[in-house]
Amino acid sequence: MAEKRDYYEVLGVSKDASSADLKNAFRSLARKYHPDRSEEENAEEMFKEIQEAYAILSDEQKRAQYDRFGHSGPGGGSPFGGFGGGGFNINLEDLFGGDIFSNIFGGGGGGNGRRSRRRGSDIRMFHTVDLEKIFSGSQEEVEVELPVSCTQCAGTGAKNGEISDCRECNGQGRVRMRQQVGPFVQDVVRDCSSCDGSGHQIDERCSYCRGKGKEIKATTLRFNIPAGAESGTRLRMRGKGEPAPNGKGEDGDLFIEIDVEEHLWFERSGADLIMSLPLGYSDLVLGTSITLSHVDGKDLTIKVPAYSNSGDTLEIKKRGLPRTRRSGRGDVIVLLKLHMPKKVDKKSRKSLQELKDVLGPKDILERIKADAKERRN
Questions:
Q1: Core-most of 9, 206, 297, 300, by most CB within 10 Å?
Q2: Domain 143-218+236-260: top CATH class
Q3: Nearest one of 162, 129, 248 to 197, comparing CA atoms
Q4: Please, are residues 172 and 192 in contact by the beta-carbon 8 Å criterion?
Q5: In the chain, which residues fall in CATH 2.10.230.10?
């Protein structure tokens, strides 16, 4: 049999810990290892050990005996015999000041009252816009079908909206249970399975919505897309989500997720716009000027200097998208690429052959060495 751990070690406190220190340590560990909620493999064993340690150390007389005699107790033998036997029955509800699940795990309402009204589920939808709308921001109006409370039963799901208290939980929405965990007994409060925690029951369903309490209705939505928004940006419309269950509570929210369409030649990097510009060899050597339509409504002129190389980048300052977190605009970054024709006619091939001797490097090995030296410098 494994040797029992020191109770102070189990709770992670010192031997001079106060009652408040003990309670805080126990509450923290109970949250972590409660068997109904913890994903730890040894949660049940750890919870038993924590309960046992707290049951002894929180009792002044038993703590004094433990400090003096250790686990064997004053009469020797097991800790159960030494400290009174019969297991430990810690009232977790009293310790945590109400329903254990509402205090440890964030549930709503106290253990003695009706469960707090539940909230409807949130809904997410996608809305696609082009880069031009992202540049200036836009006001959008779309018609979508969304669930709303049934007009015939006011969202209750019951005929004429008439509902009654659940007979299983007397309208409380919660039921109290005594649970045995190994040698320990604890009281827990859980959602009533008969009414799913609502506290209500339907005697006769609404024929219009078949008891669902909601219907699908075409709804016009109006919302603003901020300038510079990125794909994945979410807009929140309060109360436009799923109706509250049984028509009582708060409706959920609608989240509109923005999806920005791909542009024909621009890629986006934050507020910067990046594009590849394919050019012929003569354009790179002699230089050229290209004019394109731009997302800001004004023409974008790209001036390519003479003797440019494929792979060079040009920056056009402050012609990108608006910055969302500070003022100003991003840049347009142009990557120059050499356009290679798929096929060349005989006349052009002859002209290229004549230019080869003029434009091509005389000694390829020396040219490679020179380029490497330029890159290092």
A1: 206
A2: mainly beta
A3: 248
A4: yes
A5: 143-218+236-260
| Helix ranges, 78-211 (H) | 79-82, 92-96, 100-104, 131-136
55-to-28, 78, 88, 182, 228 alpha-carbon distances in Å: 15, 15, 7, 15, 59
Q: Give how far the C-alpha of residue 262 lies from the chain's centroid of Cα atoms, to the nearest Å.
A: 25
Q: What is the DSSP letter of 41?
A: T
Confidence of residue 221 (pLDDT cuts 50, 70, 90): very high
Q: Quote the CA–CA distance of 7 and 27 in Å, as a whole number.
A: 15
pLDDT band for 156, please (50, 70, 90 cuts): confident
Give the Cβ contact number of residue 319 at 10 Å: 18
Predicted pLDDT of residue 278: 94
Share of the chain above pLDDT 90, in %: 33
The tens digit of pLDDT for each residue in 93-146 reads 445 444 444 344 434 444 444 444 578 889 999 999 999 999 989 999 999 999
* The domain made up of 262-340 is a member of CATH 2.60.120.260: no
Cα(210)–Cα(150) distance, rounded to whole angstroms?
Answer: 10
d(CA 252, CA 155): 14
E strands, 160-213, in order? 164-165, 174-181, 184-191, 200-201
Give the residue among 241, 250, 249 at the shortest CA–CA distance from 200: 249
Task: Give dist(CA 321, CA 335) in Å, integer.
Answer: 18
pLDDT at res. 304: 95
Q: How many residues does the chain have?
A: 377
> Residue 147, SS3?
strand
Q: Using the predicted structure, report yes or no on whether residue 84 has a pLDDT greater than 60.
A: no
Domain 7-88: give its CATH code.
1.10.287.110
